[in-house]
Design brief:
The chain has 341 residues and is α/β, with parallel strands linked by helices. The chain contains nine helices and eight strands. The two termini are 16 Å apart.
C-alpha cells in the first residue's frame, strides 16, 4: 500500500510562490515519458451541428482495459503538457487514454459553429455514451484540469442522477467550480497577465470563427473588450445559451451540483492558486459522500511541481498527475485510499 505521506505536497523550494508555480510548467525542463501507444484521431458528434476532436490511445485489449478521459483547461488543448504527462503515465499503467479537446481547441475550429464554455458537460457525456455503446468500454475515469476540472465534476454530478452511471471515478485539479469567484480573482490587478493572455487567444479564436461563419460572428466588439467578463458577456454566454455573463457563471459552475456526485471523487486545490480562489473549496456546498479532498499550501494553479521525484518508476515531479493515477488505481482495485480524509 502506498504511504499516506504521498498526500503531503512538498513544493520545489524555488516555487513557493503561486505565480511562479503557475507559470513554471511552461518553462520547466520536463522529460516526458515517450507515449508507448500512438494516438488515433477520432471525432465525436456532441450535438446536431457540433463535433469534438479527440486523440485516442488504445491498449491491445482495449475492451478489458480501464479508460481515462482527460480534459484540459481554458485555452489549452489535448496537447497541453499536463495532459500529455498524465497520458504517458496512464498508458504505462495499462489504461486506454482519450485526450479530449473542447470545442474549437486543438485545431478543431472548423468542427463546431459554437464556442466552448465551462458548462459543456453534455459534450463529455456524449463522448462517454459513444465509448460505452460503440466501444463497449465499462470502466471509465474522468480527469480534468482547471476549467476542465469544473466540467468533469459537473459531468459526474449529472451522470450520478442516473442509476446506470457509466463512469466509476472523477478527479479534478484546481477546478474552477465557482466561476463568479474565479472571474473576480482573475480581474485583480496582480492577475492582469493571466487575463490578457487568455483574452489574446480567445479573441484570435473569434477572428477565426468569423472567417468560417461570417453570419454568426461580429468581430467589431473585439476592439473594445479589455476584460474576460466582457468577452464572456458578448461571446461566451450568448453562444452558450446563457444570455449574459452573470447567468453563465451561475449556471455553468459545478459547485452547487457537487453534492449530487455519488462516485469516488478526488479534488486537489492549492491555497496559493492565483486564478481559482481557495475560498471556493471552503463553501458548505463543496461536499459529496465519496469526496477525497487534498488541499495544499503551495501548488499554484494546476502546477504542483514537487521538490523531488517519487520513488515509483513512473511517478515524476508532477505531483498532481501522480495523485490522479494513484486515485484511479485504488478506485479500480476497490482498495481503501491511503490518504482519504
Amino acid at each position: 500500500m502506498l504511504d499516506k505521506e504521498k498526500c503531503q505536497f512538498s513544493p520545489s523550494p524555488f516555487l513557493k510562490n503561486g505565480h511562479l508555480m503557475t507559470i513554471a510548467p511552461a518553462i520547466w525542463p520536463r522529460k516526458l515519458l515517450p507515449l508507448k501507444i500512438q494516438s488515433q484521431q477520432r471525432v465525436f458528434q456532441v450535438s446536431a451541428d457540433s463535433f469534438v476532436l479527440t486523440h485516442c490511445h488504445w491498449q491491445h485489449n482495449s475492451k478489458n482495459s480501464p479508460t481515462i478521459i482527460i480534459l484540459h483547461g481554458l485555452e489549452g488543448s489535448a496537447n497541453s503538457l499536463h495532459v500529455i504527462g498524465l497520458t504517458a503515465k496512464a498508458l504505462e499503467l495499462g489504461y486506454n487514454v482519450i485526450r479530449m479537446n473542447m470545442r474549437n481547441c486543438g485545431g478543431s475550429i472548423h468542427l463546431s459553429p459554437s464556442l466552448y464554455n465551462a458548462g459543456l458537460s453534455a459534450d463529455v457525456i456524449s463522448v462517454i455514451n459513444e465509448l460505452h455503446t460503440s466501444d463497449k468500454l465499462e470502466k471509465i475515469f474522468l480527469a480534468g484540469f482547471s476549467l476542465g476540472g469544473n466540467i468533469v465534476l459537473k459531468t459526474a454530478a449529472e451522470l450520478s442522477q442516473n442509476s446506470n452511471c457509466k463512469i466509476i471515478a472523477v478527479a479534478a485539479v484546481s477546478p474552477s467550480i465557482d466561476l463568479h469567484a474565479a472571474i473576480d480573482a482573475i480581474e485583480l490587478p496582480k492577475n492582469k497577465f493571466y487575463e490578457q493572455w487568455f483574452l489574446r487567444t480567445l479573441k484570435d479564436k473569434i477572428k477565426q470563427k468569423a472567417k468560417l461563419y461570417p453570419d454568426f460572428y461580429d468581430t467589431k466588439p473585439l476592439r473594445t473588450i479589455r476584460r474576460l467578463r466582457e468577452f464572456d458577456n458578448i461571446y461566451t454566454a450568448p453562444f452558450g445559451g446563457y444570455g449574459n455573463a452573470n447567468n453563465y457563471y451561475k449556471k455553468a459552475s459545478a459547485l452547487p451540483l457537487i453534492k449530487n456526485i455519488k462516485i469516488p471523487t478526488l479534488v486537489i486545490a492549492s491555497e496559493d492558486d492565483p486564478i481559482v480562489p481557495f475560498s471556493s473549496f471552503q463553501s458548505k456546498d463543496f461536499y459529496c459522500s465519496q469526496m477525497t479532498f487534498i488541499p495544499t499550501k503551495f501548488g499554484g494553479h494546476a502546477s504542483f511541481i514537487q521538490a523531488t521525484k517519487e520513488p515509483e518508476q513512473l511517478f515524476d515531479c508532477f505531483w498532481a498527475e501522480n495523485r490522479i493515477l494513484e486515485f484511479s488505481e485504488y478506485t479500480s482495485s476497490a482498495l481503501p485510499l491511503p490518504y482519504n480524509h
